[in-house]
Amino acid sequence: MVAKKVRNHLPLKLHAHWEVNISSEDVLREISLNTTGSVNSEETALISADKDSRASVDLDVTEKNPDIFKTLKESFLKAFKVMDGELRLHTNIDCFCSGTTAVTLVKLGPYLVVGNVGDSRAVLATRDKDNSLKAVQLTVDLKPNLPAEAEGIRNCKGRVFAFHDEPTVARVWLPNNDALGLAMARAFGDFCLKDFGLISVPEISYRSLSEEDEFYVLATDGVKEPTWILIQNTDI
């Protein structure tokens, strides 16, 4: 129920905040004037969201268009924050010990803008020099095993450790109770852990597209871990 609520309402909130901040035509015009040929198609920029965000890298695409990408980043941050706040108010949905990941992609002219919370994943299918189709991961799986994510959780008195029978799966736990055991560092809902390091702040990335790029896929870990099912859709 939490996942369906986010799926149905987060895109609308993102669009609404985007329209308030700046029109798409203005963004496209300024991008076209200022960045033609300036960003390699292999470059991805991870931008720190705010004081709650962790681990980021800035690249040329944001340096050459600081105002535009600041606006886009703010739209993602506001939409994700409002979405998580509304979940808390829905008394008919149990969000205390349940939640969802989310990955959101917006195509704007020659750029993809991705907002990611948790371990859902965005992947781009592109052609290499041999014209073979290859997958390029656009997001980082935001799990507690990442040092920066674990540090943020522990700074809020949450605990991070893995069970002996699954030593590679780090989980987030309450300070004095072996619960909830959440295997992600960011999520919507799961409010029992929100005071102990779990956040819903998205990691935001930008990527310029090239002629070699063919399609992209958004999927939960239930799809990506057993096998990738690629669906071509140029209008995503």
Automatic annotation (TrEMBL):
What the entry lists under CDD domains is as follows: PP2Cc
Indicate the segments forming the PPM-type phosphatase domain, all copies: 1-236
A GO molecular-function term, please?
Answer: protein serine/threonine phosphatase activity
- Which InterPro entries did the record assign? PP2C, PPM-type-like_dom_sf, PPM-type_phosphatase-like_dom
Q: Name one Pfam family in it.
A: PP2C
The protein, known as: PPM-type phosphatase domain-containing protein
Source organism per UniProt: Gossypium aridum
Its lineage opens with:
Eukaryota, Viridiplantae, Streptophyta, Embryophyta, Tracheophyta
